[in-house]
Amino acid sequence: xxQGEEDPQALSIQEGENATMNCxxxxxxxxxxxxxxxSGRGLVHLILIRSNEREKHSGRLRVTLDTSKKSxxxxxxxxxxxxxxxxxxxxxxxxxxxxxxxxxGKGTKLSVIP
Amino acid sequence: xAGVTQTPRxxxxxxxxxxxxxxxxxxxxxxxxxxxxxxGQGLQFLFEYFSETxxxxxxxxxxxxxxxxSNSRSEMNVSTLELGDSALxxxxxxxxxxxxxxxxxxxxxxLTVT
Lengths: 114, 114
Hints:
The complex is a heterodimer of chains A (114) and B (114). Chain A has no helices and 11 strands.
């Protein structure tokens, strides 16, 4: 079953603008991860934020996590045409060295228009 | 370091046949997970292996099985293929350590069942 729900389902912006995607989830988590997928290819890991972290940056990416609201957001600043892809949030509810199982949302399809 | 590799990349099979997909994790990664991605159901967890043992299994019929070898390479098998098994099958590996880490995905195997 899907744990995460991304919002919006699709987003179209002009190159240079910022893109914000949101993710909500249902259960307690150990960490939340964001992935990018280009056109039916493999998933590329973007960033991992742990449950005790509130914000994380990586290059043009900024991720926030609000465990009280069970939500996260991914901000891509100064978007480029190459950022066009589907973006997924995935939650890891496991602990320690226990089984690895990510639960994915349905994704946000981002289109960046040159 | 080489990434996660999956073979074959594309496969066309007929209903009723069986198929075996292969995954080689990143060197040093001992956890290997498999996911199925379809347009309708999105990304769904199939199973996870660690040290040649299946630690967790998703909600899939017994026709879906897998195994892991001593070198951490993994295979998954689908028997008696159905049209609905057409999907992108993704393998992911993770470094199992004290803290839970990101999963790195391979490019996937696109299976078409006719």
